[in-house]
Amino acid sequence: MIEVSGLRKAFGTHEVVHDVSLNLRPGTLHGLVGANGAGKTTLLHCLYGLHHDYQGTVRETTGLSIRPCTGLLPYEPYFYPRLTGREYLEFTLQARGRALVDFEGWNQLLELPLDQYAEEYSAGMKKKLALLALLVQPFRYLILDEPFNGLELNTNLLLMEILRRLRGQGTGILLTSHLLGSLTELCDELTVLADGTVRRRYQAAEFGQVQADLLDGFYQNKLAQVHRLLPL
Ligand SMILES: Nc1ncnc2c1ncn2[C@@H]1O[C@H](COP(=O)(O)OP(=O)(O)OP(=O)(O)O)[C@@H](O)[C@H]1O
């Protein structure tokens, strides 16, 4: 299991993650929700080791080093210029010292033009390529930052089934999304972040309360403001 304990992360003097603790267990789907700027991406980057200058601990409890057994889907995947989709996939395998595999089975699902330059893909195609690079190799953990964002409806439904299957095979998956319905349909556990702290955790049996907790007070205040700005 990946265990995060007492995590604090600042950019300069601005602390954006304050004393966050959470666990990611193998064979579970753990959703992370929170407003824009709540600290979700920063937390994921600390877990994956993209930030090292944090306080607290992030560890795999069996002693594994996290990065080699974990795949990260970044919020905005970046691709080197003049690299085709296929070359990018080959590069990601080689970078981890893995043998090349046949991509076609997975690409029958995502239907990418693998021989075109990845930098020329649409935003949704780039997201699919970054996902494909994770799906063609085995990982004990996956960290997915907004995996559904920008994907067409069919692919989102496929992705949900793929994530359920990976969970069934024992993968521990931590994902962020602003699509609450997708998270409550998919996840075993939700953590709500607000202003860099854990506001509340929910187990699946409690998911019915999440929408009311997250939205009702916020939405009623904003709705009153809309009515003030646009009186009928
Ligand atoms: N490189 C950086 N330098 C300075 N501040 C940063 C940096 N990255 C993030 N922040 C700040 O950290 C806070 C948390 O940002 P973060 O991207 O983690 O939020 P988020 O919850 O993922 O938001 P969103 O839902 O909009 O993606 C924000 O106030 C943001 O401005």
Automatic annotation (TrEMBL):
Entry superkingdom: Bacteria
Keyword tags: ATP-binding, Nucleotide-binding, Transport
GO function terms (MF aspect): ATP binding
ABC transporter domain ranges (all copies): 2-220
Transmembrane segments: none
Gene3D superfamilies linked: P-loop containing nucleotide triphosphate hydrolases
Protein name: ATP-binding cassette domain-containing protein
Organism: Hymenobacter duratus
